[in-house]
Amino acid sequence: MTATAAAPEETIGMMVKRWRERRRRSQLDLSLAAEMSTRHLSYIETGRSNPSPAMIERICDELDVPLRERNRFHLAAGFAPAYRERPLTDLGAAQDAVRAVLAGMEHHPAVAVNVHWDLLAANQAMEAFLRDLPGELRRPPVNMLRATLHPDGLAARIMNLGQWRSHVVRRVRRQLERTAADGLAALLAELEAYGPPSPTTGPAADGTTADDLVVPLRMATPYGDLALLYTATVFGSPRDVTLDEIAIETFFPADQATAQVLRSLADLRTAPRAETPT
């Protein structure tokens, strides 16, 4: 079992207050939702009362606190961490589920990432997109956002880079606000430091069309221009820190031309190799 201890100067009361304010909840609102008195919650926040493990869980449930941070709550209150943290390879049926989803989406690029968008697993379709990245960006752990937006990465191929970069930066900000995960602020600053791309002109400068349902990722490839949309899949009711932070992101074709290219590439990967004459 692993967990990062809370900073020595931060008490359990300070943590409760910080997360309550992060979620923009009043003491009255939170106390009613967690079925406790406002006075008890006030005593917890000021250090006059120490919550039980069960009370910590009720408060964290109402504030949607991630499991990694919940372990810090328990440690700050003087209790053992409540949740284990195991590598993906030690997650049994959950690992099998991740592998099954990635394999089942083999016609579409798909990847499993953690809370920082570090690569945990990818299917062959996604590996084909990452194959030409420079060695520095392929050094483990591969960060999918860095690989996408770094000037030496896939950014040179993204046709609507300004639009996609803005979308990614907003998404990282939301992730940071929701999770307060260590390292996310540094990643956000790095992505912002890449700077906006050179301005483009013309009716399609932002990469959108009137028929777009979502913000597409538009990429130029040797096989033609691709328009991709993505979905994110997470596990319901996780009880492990690693599992709580895993998301499977799958890219689907946003138009028929892209669908045809992805099918053709999948057929090339699965076609039997011709035997070499001896």
TrEMBL record:
Q: Which residues form the HTH cro/C1-type domain?
A: 16-70
Q: Which InterPro entries match?
A: Cro/C1-type_HTH, Lambda_DNA-bd_dom_sf, MLTR_LBD
GO molecular function, one example? DNA binding
SUPFAM superfamilies the record matches? lambda repressor-like DNA-binding domains
Q: Which Pfam families does the record associate with it?
A: HTH_31, MLTR_LBD
What is the protein name given in its UniProt record?
Transcriptional regulator, contains XRE-family HTH domain
Q: PANTHER family of this UniProt entry?
A: BLL4672 PROTEIN-RELATED (PTHR35010), BLL5781 PROTEIN (PTHR35010:SF4)
